[in-house]
Every structure is written in C-alpha cells, then in structure tokens.
Amino acid sequence: MNYLYDGIFLFVGLFLINVLFSYQNKHIDPAFGTTLKYQIYAFSLFLIANMLIGYGIKFVFKAVHNLTFVLLISKGMEVIIAVLMGSFVYRSSYVENLLEIFIMVIGVVISKMK
Length: 114
Known about the structure:
The protein is mostly helical.
C-alpha cells in the first residue's frame, strides 16, 4: 500500500510542477517583472510540489532500495505528464506526442548500446 501512496506523491508533485510551468508558458508574459510576480504568487504551490516529489522519491527509495530505478520511474512519469500537458494545454496531436516518445526511447536505447 505504501507503494501506491509514494507513487501518488511523486505523480501529483510532478503533475503540479508541469501544470504551473505550462500555465506560465501559455498565459504569463515572458517579461521579467511579470514572470517574477507569477513565480512569487505561485511559490507556495512550487514548494508543495517540490516536497511531494522529494518525499515520493525518498519513500519509494526506502521501499525498493534502488535509486536508479526510482529516478527512472520518476522520469517515466514526467514524460507521460509532459505528453498529457502537450495534448491538453497546447492542443498538440497525439501523433506528434507519440513520435516524441519514440525519439526519446530510441535515444535511451542508443545510449545504452555498447
């Protein structure tokens, strides 16, 4: 059951970070003052997201005792969330998103080849 809670902590933290940055990218003017004001207003949400991610990684590591596996799972979740954000926030097509995931998988396979 702890795996479920830890995974939820990690997923919600990563999702919140991606939502905050997607909103900033789409709706906030890139000028320094406007971006700074948004970052100050959203500071508490960033803090919550970072704590969720930190505790999620910490508790999953306690459960599986393999940091590489934990970070790999974290990156996998982040890719899935990025695809969701691209689809819903930026209205990109699923074919583009699948192509991007395919390119990332090819990159991982090539980097693991000897």
